[in-house]
Design goal:
62% helix, two-stranded antiparallel ribbon
Length: 261
């Protein structure tokens, strides 16, 4: 006796994409509320049933959204106590999504300064290493990115993508695998601060010449000069960003970042 072969139905790709969009959107909305301070560290979020009913989504979608936030360090879920907002020191602040949520509102000047301090610690050293270790392929990638930045300008998405590619190529050229792992975070920081500076008015200053000086120093193998001009690039980027803050957020007169060793 023969029976009909059992068939399994392939998952509906469209339905899966829709599901991903739903819980991704929930995670984004909750993430913005957390990083903006609407939900404070230690605060318990709504229970799964109540939250899913309020948002008119499935409990599964809400649960998946919380998993996304937990992976980024924003929340912690424990039996009986529920899901709580984590202390800020546990947040993965360099996560590209978390950075994008921070720049959905006016971030604190101190947080911006801390972000640029990190860049000033990392990128000048990476530039110095790149001047010694870069390959021709790295130079080509940096040069191509520079040309795209000039062609499209940083007022366009294409120009900002090229800016990210320039900084990623520089970190890659350092030859240090630990620095390379910072590429996505640094690129996100570059992109979102550039967008942030232009949210109300066009860029006051063209930063592309600063990038050209970094490229020239790396191309000629001058590690000291690469370190110096990259530090200047980060300093100027911070000043441009700080000056774009509204007076109520800007607590001190914009000044250069402290020097790094």
């Amino acid at each position: 006796m023969t029976g009909r072969a059992k068939t399994t139905k392939a998952p509906d790709a469209r339905a899966r994409r829709k599901s991903l969009r739903i819980h991704g959107a929930i995670a984004r909305d909750l993430g913005i509320l957390i990083v903006s301070g609407r939900y404070r560290p230690g605060e318990v979020l709504n229970g799964e049933v109540a939250a899913s009913d309020r948002l008119q989504v499935s409990r599964t979608a809400y649960r998946e959204a919380l998993r996304i936030l937990a992976a980024k360090g924003l929340v912690e879920s424990r039996p009986k106590t529920g899901t709580r907002v984590s202390p800020r020191e546990k947040w993965h602040l360099l996560d590209p999504d978390v950075l994008s949520w921070i720049f959905e509102f006016e971030p604190e000047e101190s947080l911006l300064e801390s972000l640029f301090e990190l860049r000033k610690i990392v990128e000048p050293e990476a530039a110095a290493l790149a001047a010694v270790r870069r390959s021709e392929a790295h130079l080509v990638a940096m040069k191509t990115a520079l040309e795209a930045m000039e062609k499209h300008t940083l007022a366009s998405e294409a120009g900002r993508l090229a800016d990210q590619q320039f900084h990623s190529a520089l970190l890659d050229a350092s030859g240090n695998p630990f620095l390379v792992t910072l590429s996505s975070g640094v690129s996100a920081a570059v992109a979102w601060t550039t967008i942030f500076k232009q949210r109300n008015t066009p860029l006051r200053r063209d930063p592309i010449p600063d990038h050209k000086r970094v490229y020239d120093a790396v191309a000629t193998g001058d590690a000291a000069e690469a370190h110096r001009v990259m530090a200047e690039l980060v300093d100027m980027a911070f000043l441009d960003t700080a000056r774009s803050l509204p007076p109520k957020v800007r607590t001190t007169r914009a000044k250069p970042l402290p020097p790094t060793a």
